[in-house]
C-alpha cells in the first residue's frame, strides 16, 4: 500500500495528489460510506427527544424493525398488515414497471443502435429532452393527461368508447405510466450503448443462415446486449422502488408507495429512527433482489453503469 | 558548443514487483554523443529512458547527469527533454504553442515565444506552419515539431523513445540523416531508444545492445556489427547465420569448432571472449550472408561449408541463396549483383567459402527471436 | 414484402413511442395558454398569457428558483470536482482495489434518492451534535445539506461522463509537460483540463439539471430553503393550476432551445473540422462563414425556426388581449348558468307545486318548512359538490383547498359548456 501511495504521489505531485485523494476520500467515506453506516446505526435506536440522545435511554434496540413486521405494540393485529402490504406491493410494482420499460425500450434501443444517419441524433435529442424536464413536471404532465377530464378521458368519452370517465389515477395506471415514463432514458441508454457496438455482420450472418428475426434477437442480440439490459433493468428497478415524486403526485389515495411511508415517518410522525429503519429495509431488500436477479441471469456487477 | 553533459548509469536496477526490468546496468555516455539503446521490445530500454528522464525511481543504483546524482529530482527539474514514442504533441495547442511550451512555463511573453518558435520552425524547415494544429501536419512534420519542442527547452540531454517507429520507410530513412544533423548542430547528448538496428547503426556514436533487462554489449556500430560479444548481439544486429558446435581447439585468437552439421570449421574468437572460451565449450559461430562466396565444387577444408540449396531469390542489389542449415534454420547467402550471371542451384549441393576473419565465435547463448 | 412490413411497423412503433415520450410535454405546454382555470387542452376556451403573469408574481416560485440556482451552482462545483478526482483515481488505483472502489463510487446511482437524503440528514445531524453546534449551525443549513446530499450521487454521474473521456487521454501528454518543466499543477491546468473541458462542460450541465430537478433527496434536506422542485411538488400535490404549465412550458422551451443550440454547434464543429482537413489556413479564414453554419445542419435550421416561433409568441403575447374572449366565455357561461338556474327554479317550482298539490290533497294539516328556498337559486350551482370535473380531479388529495380551482368556480364547469369556441 505505501508503495502504491508513493507511486500515486510521484505521478500526480504532492499538491495535486493530495487534492485528488482528499476529494475522493471525502466523497467515498464522508458522503457515501459514513452516512449509510450512520443511518444503519440510527435505525437501531429509539426515537428520543434531542436532550436524551446519548443518555441512558439511548440503547440499541430492534424496536423499529419489529414495528414494520408486528405493528405498534398492543395493536389489534398480529402483523403490521398495512405497511407490509405497501412494502411488497412497491417491490412488485417496481418489477412490473421494469418489465414494462424493458419491453417498451428494447425495440427502440435496438433500432437506434443499429441505424445510422442524421435522424438518429434528432431521436437522441428527443429522448433526452424529457429527461431534462423536472421530475415533478413530468408527473404533472401525466396527471393532466390521465385526469378525469384529461386528454385521454375526453378523447375516449368523446369518441364514445367509454360512457363515463375512467379513473386512471385510482387504478394506478397513471402511476405505472408515470414511473415508466420517468426512467425510459435509463433503460434505453445502457442497452443502446451495448447494441451499438454489436457488429452488424453477426446479424447479417444469422439472417443469412436462415434464422427468423425473433431467433436472431433471442440467440444473437439479447445475449450480446445482456450487460446493457441488466444495467438498465437494475437502474429502473432501484429508481422506481425508491421513487417518491411520482407516487405522491400520480398515486391513488388508497395506494401508498413504501417511500411515502418513509416520508411520513420523517415528516409527519417525526420518528427519524423508524424512518431510517424503513429506509434500510428498502435499501437492503432492493440490493439483495438485484443481486439475486444478477446471479439468476449470470451478470457481473462490473457491467452496471457502463 | 560545449562538449555536452554526460550521463552515467551506475549499478542500475529497476524492478516492478517481482519482475526485473533492468538488471545491474552500467553505462557511461559521453557528453555530446549520440548514444543508442538497441533491443527488442520489452527488453527494458524504455524503462532506462524513463529512469533517466525522471518518471521512474531506480530500485537500486544511480542515474548521474553531468556527474550529479538525480535521485529525488523530478522530471520537470532535470536537464533532459524526452521525445515520446507517440510524440505526445499537445493536440489542442497550435504548433508554435507546442514548441514554446517550456517558455510558457518559465513565464516568457507571447512575443518572445512567437519569435523563438519562428526560429525553431525555420530550423526544422517548417516555416509558416506555426498556426496549424498538430493534427493538420503530416507524420514527418509532427516528428520535427516534437524535436523542436524538446530543443526549445534547451536540454543538456535529449532522450528519444523510438520516435521514428510510426513513420514509413522512406521518411524514416530521411529522418535518420536529419536527426543526426540536428544532433551535430546543437551538440548536446542524444540518447536514442530503438529496436531497429539500421537506425542505431546509421546514427549512433555508441550503441548498447540490450536483452531482457541486461546490457550485452556497449560499443560503436562497427564493433557491434563485426565483433559481437554474445550470440544475442550477433543474431540481433543485422542478419547472421548461426553454426552451433563445440570448441575443439583454441589457436590464439582463432579456434577450431566441430559444428553439428557442417564438420570442423575455423573461426575468429570475438574480442571480448578471447582467453575465456576454452576447448570443449559450447559455442556459436556467426557468418554474415554477404561474407560467403561460392567455391568450386569439391573444395573442402576448415573454411568451406557444403549444403543443399532449398530455394533462391533475386532481390535487386543482391542475389540470395537459402540452403539447409543448422537447427532447422536456413543458411542465407547474399551475393552482390555485379552484373554476373547466376546459375539456378535449387536442389543441388553447393560449396560456400568464407574468410576466417568473417566468422565470429561466441559462447553458446540465447538467439534473438526472428 | 416482409421487409417493408417490418419497416412500417418499426416506424409506427417509433411514432407511438415518441408520442408517449413527448406528448405529455406538448399537452402540458399547450395547457399553459388555455384560459381554463384547470390545466386542460379540451375544451379550449381562450388563448391567454395570464398564467405566465401569475407565475412571475408567485413569490414562492421565485424564491424556489433562487434557492435552486444557489444549490445547483454548489452541486455543480462539488460534484464535478469529486467526479473528476474520482475518475482520475479510477484510472490509476491499485488494481486490487479497483473493483471495490468502482462499486463504492457507482453505488450512489443505485441507492434510492430517499435513502441518500435520509442518510445525509442523519449523518450531518450527528456530526452537528458531536461538535456541540446548535440547530442553526452551518452543518444543519438546508443549502449545505442539499448540496452535500445531491452531490453524493450526482458526482457518480459526473464521474461516468468524465472517465469516458479520461480513458482517451494519453498520459504521455502530462509526462511531456512535466518533462518540459511544468509542475504537476501546471500540467493539470494547461494540458489535462483543456483536454477534459468538453466532458467537464457536459458533466456540469448534467449536474445542474440533475440538481435542479431532484426531489427525492432534497425533500429530506432542504430545511428552510425549498427549491423550485420542492415548491412545485407542494403545489402539484395540493392542486394544480395552469401557472405550473406555464413554468413547464418555459422549461421545455429553454431545454429545446439549448439542446438545439448545442446540436447545431456540434454539427458546425464537425463541418469546420471536415473543412479544415481539406483546406489551408488562408482558405479557412474566409471559408467558415455564417451560411455554412446552416449547410447540412438540420439542427441549426430547427434552431432558427424555433427562435422565430418564440419571438412570434412573445410578440403576440404583448399585443394580444384575451379579455374580450374571456368575457365572451364568461358571458356565455353566465347565460348557460342562468339558463340552468331558471331550469332548476322551474323544476323546484314544479316540485313545490306538486308537493303543495299533494299536501293540499292530504288536507294541508301539517305545514312543511320551506327548506329549498333557504338554499336560494344559486345554491346548488356554486356548491362544491357540483364543481364537477375540477373537484373530482382533486379528489385524490383530500386536503385540496377548493380555492385552487380558480375564482370562477362552477362557472367554468366544463359540464356547463356545451358548444366549442
Description:
The complex is a heterotrimer of chains A (306), B (370) and C (421). Chain A has 306 residues and is an all-alpha fold. Chain A has 2 domains: 1-43, no CATH class; 62-303, MetI-like fold (Orthogonal Bundle). Helices cover 72% and strands 0% of the residues of chain A. Chain A has helices at 2-12, 14-43, 63-70, 81-114, 118-132, 135-146, 151-159, 173-182, 184-196, 200-208, 213-241, 245-250, 258-267, 272-296. Chain B folds into 2 domains: 7-226, Rossmann fold (3-Layer(aba) Sandwich); 240-363, RNA polymerase II/Efflux pump adaptor protein, barrel-sandwich hybrid domain (OB fold (Dihydrolipoamide Acetyltransferase, E2P), Beta Barrel), CATH 2.40.50. In chain B, 23% of the residues lie in helices and 34% in strands. A 6-stranded mixed β-sheet of chain B has the order 6-7-8-3-9-10, with helices on both faces. Chain B has a 5-stranded mixed beta barrel with strand order 11-12-13-20-14. A 5-stranded antiparallel β-sheet of chain B has the order 15-19-16-17-18, with no helix packed on it. In chain B, helix 4 (110-123) crosses helix 5 (139-152). Chain B is globular and about 80 Å long. By secondary structure, chain C is mainly alpha-helical. Among the domains of chain C are: 59-237, MetI-like (MetI-like fold, Orthogonal Bundle); 243-320; 382-410, no CATH class. Chain C has helices spanning 2-31, 50-56, 59-92, 95-110, 113-130, 142-166, 171-179, 184-213, 218-221, 228-237, 242-277, 281-287, 290-294, 298-319, 323-362, 371-375, 379-382, 389-393. Chain C is extended, with a radius of gyration of 31 Å. Chain C starts with a helix and ends in a 28-residue tail after the last helix. Chains in contact: A-C, B-C. Chains A and C meet through helix 1, helix 2, helix 4, helix 5 and helix 6 of A and helix 1, helix 3, helix 4, helix 5 and helix 6 of C.
Mean pLDDT of chain B, to the nearest integer, reads 88
**Count of domains of chain A:** 2
CATH topology of the largest domain in chain B: Rossmann fold
Largest interface: pair, residues per side: A-C, 102 and 101 residues
Query: If classified by CATH, what would the architecture of the largest domain in chain A be?
Result: Orthogonal Bundle
* Global geometry of chain A: globular
Going by CATH, what is the homologous superfamily of the largest domain in chain A?
MetI-like
For the biggest β-sheet of chain B, the strand order reads 6-7-8-3-9-10
Query: How would you sum up the major sheet of chain A?
Result: none
Q: What percentage of residues of chain A falls in helices of 4 or more residues?
A: over 70%
